């Protein structure tokens, strides 16, 4: 089960996500030639408090679903990559559907802090050409999963 | 360094990181077709998200085909690339480059230390997590358990009399097996396991120990 602060997500097997990504990791990362740019920089994911984590993971996974996977999906020729993407996307949909970030007033400053982290990620994404940004984002799913794993309990 | 004509030599091949407990060593094969030629190599590395390639100070114009980059890649939450080129007289190869290397996800976690104590029908197993690579021997020791809080162990037990193998995955460092046969030689080996992406495992050396003779049957004799 994932525990992003107050948000609980059951029914997702993290090893499945790892397996899906690991099968295509080298293929995806080899396509990324702009190695001097990192989208999920340390400033985005380091020292995220439990309370912030629910907001941040919600924003990141929604972005991956609505922007990254959706647009990268059309470029996928290889069946192997398509299978991996479907597995990742389906699991991300489950996680997002179960996350209920609190809208309470007293959580405003925390949600804003998480939002600034997300904006840093998205700004870096938008500063790149769309194609290059999509390739880089899918290649950084291992960084995203490594951070998410910190909130996972077997 | 003396400038050389790039592309005058074939590239080194099979360049890859071999990483165990965060000791990250770059390995490669010599370029093909250059048998008997005294080739030297130069290595550079790159931190993903940074701006430029950096020279590996210990691996400039070397003749060996490996380079320990543990110090350069010691921040295991970063990702890295490395590249090597071959040089011979005024000619050199183009760079041969690794794929992206993520020590936190890719290092092999070595086996634990295994201590066995036998009773009549029991064996007690105490495990000590492997140590992380240290820059200097007198640096503070860091256990791989501290890096991977979810570190687990697969314990394998083999009954040499019945020739049956039994295994169990445990999260803590002690295991008491108290349902064994007396006066029987058992062999144990253990693998470390970290939930997450698939990793190569390194089993511990097989250790064998015999359970003691059953006191009751000893008295009857």
UniProtKB/TrEMBL annotation, chain A:
<dbReference type="InterPro" id="IPR020443">
    <property type="entry name" value="IL-10/19/20/24/26"/>
</dbReference>
<comment type="function">
    <text>Immune regulatory cytokine.</text>
</comment>
<keyword id="KW-0964">Secreted</keyword>
<comment type="similarity">
    <text>Belongs to the IL-10 family.</text>
</comment>
<keyword id="KW-0202">Cytokine</keyword>
<keyword id="KW-0732">Signal</keyword>
<dbReference type="InterPro" id="IPR020423">
    <property type="entry name" value="IL-10_CS"/>
</dbReference>
<dbReference type="InterPro" id="IPR020444">
    <property type="entry name" value="IL-24"/>
</dbReference>
<protein>
    <recommendedName>
        <fullName>Interleukin family protein</fullName>
    </recommendedName>
</protein>
<dbReference type="GO" id="GO:0005125">
    <property type="term" value="F:cytokine activity"/>
</dbReference>
<dbReference type="InterPro" id="IPR009079">
    <property type="entry name" value="4_helix_cytokine-like_core"/>
</dbReference>
<dbReference type="Pfam" id="PF00726">
    <property type="entry name" value="IL10"/>
</dbReference>
<dbReference type="GO" id="GO:0005615">
    <property type="term" value="C:extracellular space"/>
</dbReference>
């Amino acid at each position: 089960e994932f525990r992003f602060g107050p948000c609980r997500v059951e029914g997702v097997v993290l090893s499945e996500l790892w397996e899906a990504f690991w099968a295509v990791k080298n293929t995806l990362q080899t396509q990324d030639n702009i190695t001097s740019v990192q989208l999920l920089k340390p400033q985005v994911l380091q020292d995220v408090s439990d309370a912030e984590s629910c907001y941040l993971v919600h924003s990141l996974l929604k972005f991956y679903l609505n922007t990254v996977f959706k647009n990268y999906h059309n470029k996928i020729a290889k069946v192997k990559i398509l299978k991996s993407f479907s597995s990742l996307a389906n699991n991300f949909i489950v996680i997002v559907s179960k996350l209920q970030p609190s809208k309470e007033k007293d959580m405003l400053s925390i949600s804003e802090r998480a939002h600034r982290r997300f904006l840093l990620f998205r700004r870096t994404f938008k500063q790149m050409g769309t194609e290059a940004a999509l390739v880089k984002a899918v290649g950084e799913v291992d960084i995203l999963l490594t951070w998410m794993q910190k909130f996972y309990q077997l | 360094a003396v400038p050389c004509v790039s592309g005058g030599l074939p590239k080194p091949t099979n360049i890859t990181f071999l990483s165990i407990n965060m000791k990250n060593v770059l390995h490669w094969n010599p370029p093909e077709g250059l048998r008997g030629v005294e080739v030297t190599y130069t290595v550079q590395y790159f931190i993903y998200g940074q701006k430029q390639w950096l020279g590996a100070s210990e691996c400039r114009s070397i003749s060996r085909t490996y380079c320990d980059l543990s110090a350069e890649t010691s921040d295991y939450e970063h990702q890295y690339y490395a590249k090597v080129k071959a040089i011979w007289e005024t000619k050199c190869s183009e760079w041969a480059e690794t794929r992206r290397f993520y020590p936190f996800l890719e290092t092999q976690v070595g086996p634990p230390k295994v201590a066995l104590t036998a009773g009549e029908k029991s064996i007690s197993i105490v495990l000590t997590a492997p140590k992380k690579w240290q820059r200097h021997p007198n640096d503070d020791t860091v256990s791989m358990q501290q890096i991977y809080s979810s570190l687990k162990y697969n314990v394998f037990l083999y009954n040499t009399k019945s020739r049956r193998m039994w295994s169990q995955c445990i999260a803590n460092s002690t295991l008491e097996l108290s349902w064994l046969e007396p006066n029987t030689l058992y062999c144990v080996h253990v693998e470390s396991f970290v939930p997450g992406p698939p990793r190569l495992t390194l089993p511990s050396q097989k250790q064998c120990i015999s359970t003691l003779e059953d006191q009751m049957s000893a008295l009857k004799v």
